[in-house]
Amino acid sequence: MAKNTICLWYDKDAEAAARFYAATFPDSAVGAVVRAPGDYPDGKQGDVLVVEFTVAGIPCIGLNGGPAFKHNEAFSFQIATDTQEETDRYWNAIVGNGGQESECGWCKDKWGVSWQITPRVLSEALSAGGGQAKRAFDAMMTMRKIDIAAIEAARRG
């Protein structure tokens, strides 16, 4: 286990979420699946309690802690993409698997975890500053899934 690991709280679907992430993103995998050695407030002995997994190289733990806590936008995974095809693939996988679109490249998976599917061209435009950053930002503010061609056009003015 890594020294620093992100722990994500799930009601009861940590293993399903981990397997979805591993199937969707490169450099992702499911590791150990730990079952509860005894009954606990929101589960029984033998239920999946903890799942170790990696998402795009980031070590995580999914904890099946019950319904007490919900995910929100205060935490998100940001996935940098290089092409529209890659952007579309990740976006469509998340939204098309029971997820939900949001604004400016954000979406949520069916477990409520927030994702930012962010083309590198957008990050580069915003980092450039000046007029091209403002134009790219204004274009992004009208989008749900980021349209790389529209961001590039905005950068050029």
What does this structure look like?
The protein is an alpha/beta fold. It has helices at residues 14-24, 84-96, 120-128, 130-140, 148-156, and strands at residues 6-10, 29-35, 48-55, 58-64, 76-81, 100-101, 106-108, 114-119. Helix 3 (120-128) packs across helix 4 (130-140) and helix 4 (130-140) runs antiparallel to helix 5. The radius of gyration is 18 Å and the shape is elongated.
In terms of DSSP E residues, the strand content is 25-35%
The side-by-side strand order for the widest beta sheet comes to 1-4-3-2
- The residue ranges in which pLDDT falls below 50 over 5 or more consecutive positions are none
Summarize model confidence as the mean pLDDT. Answer: 96
H/E order of the elements?
Answer: EHEEEEHEEEHHH
Output the structural class.
alpha/beta
Number of helices: 5
Largest sheet: 4 strands, mixed
The dominant shape is: elongated
Rg from alpha-carbon coordinates? 18 Å
Please provide a brief summary of the model.
The protein is built from five helices and eight strands, in the order βαββββαβββααα.
